[in-house]
Design goal:
12% strand; two-stranded antiparallel sheet; alpha+beta; 144 residues; 4 strands
Length: 144
């Protein structure tokens, strides 16, 4: 099973092939790397945007790690809500199967939505950055 590179949901068959532009004897060529699995057009657009904005062949690991770290922070509230609903005085070993599943569902849902939301915020800031310099964002340029 392949999982989406953005939100970690089950991949739906969509793939993005990151490319890197390089100059070879006065011609731009594209270096292709391995396809990246994604779950939806929203995640595809987000991944492509994060890759292409700096014209790198793949999403920089440090950049994705920062997004993931911020998304993990946003999971604390939903996690606390579920634990408070179950009961703070109960040890985890006393949780029922439905309690554990509700805990897992809350964290995964919060994480997935946070990764997409943060990624979209990053792209919005990058569009502002390019606009302030009188340039268009690479995603907004016609590719041909």
């Amino acid at each position: 099973i392949t999982h989406c590179a953005i939100c970690l949901k089950k991949g739906s068959g969509l793939h993005y092939v990151p490319t890197k532009r390089r100059l070879l004897s006065s011609k731009w060529t594209l270096d292709q790397t391995h396809p990246v699995p994604l779950c939806s057009m929203r995640c595809l657009a987000l991944y492509a945007g994060l890759c292409q904005v700096w014209e790198v062949g793949m999403l920089a690991p440090d950049r994705l790690q920062k997004i993931e770290a911020m998304a993990r922070e946003r999971c604390l509230g939903p996690l606390g809500d579920v634990v408070a609903g179950i009961g703070m005085d109960r040890p985890v070993s006393d949780y029922s199967k439905s309690d554990v599943l509700s805990l897992i569902t809350a964290v995964i849902t919060a994480y997935q939505s946070a990764v997409v939301e943060i990624g979209e915020q990053v792209l919005a800031r990058e569009r502002e950055y390019f606009a302030a310099r009188g340039r268009t964002h690479p995603l907004d340029e016609v590719p041909f």
